[in-house]
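Protein record
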Amino acid sequence: MKKTLLFIALLSFLCTNAGAWGREGHEVAAKVAENHLQASAKKKIEKYLGGHSIVYYAKWMDDYRRTPEFAFTNDWHIVYLDDKLQYNPTPSKPANGDCIYGLEGAIDVLKNYKQYNDSIVALNLKYIIHMVADMHCPAHIKYEGRNQDHFVTFTDYYKKKKKLKIHFVWDAAAIQETRIFSSTEWARDIDIYSKKEIKEFCKGTPREWLHSNAVRCLKQFDMAYPDAQIGQDFLNEAMPFIEEQLAIAGYRMAHLLNELF
């Protein structure tokens, strides 16, 4: 309760004083989610978002983390694990917390959204839309004792070699190299799971989702080690995995929003 009250106090102050996945990844995850929103939830959410869809605000947190008012959310895009692949907030240290901290705080607020003014509700919606997607990005799940900030040499379609941080490859470069669809087109093509599969993906809490993400995302260490030369072979393996993660993020985002609204 204390945590929720502190969270609300900070948001109230900000409202009166008025990157994980790149744009493409965030928008397609939000579009998958939008396609699975219940009609009543979608109507309420868009009212609070000023008539805009959740896709419109998919990347909002990445843009506003650069402003003084929202600099406190800078650490809310990363989540930390212990050696058992369970949530471990200790390494993040900051008083401002990390992705799970921010997500759980936003959920606590929206469980009682009718008690708060429209700007508080809208702000917490923007947090959830972004952070559910962030926690599904391999580069944003920090494994204890693992180096995830190394460089690789990435060969693009035109045979140009680029030295990039593997973090950026997972966030954006792999997607930008291979997918040029609109979010609507791409969401349609990756939204291919059965109702039974979607129900299974959505079981549990965000902390349990994190653990399942962590297990799936372990493969990243075999796919791109420090100073690796990566190109089409990497993309052929990485893109189906990225698309799976984005689809799951969308299903879980919709599940969460449907429960809250």
User: Anything to note?
Assistant: The chain is about 55% helix and 5% strand. Residues 232-260 form the longest helix (29 residues). Confidence is low (pLDDT under 50) at residues 2-18.
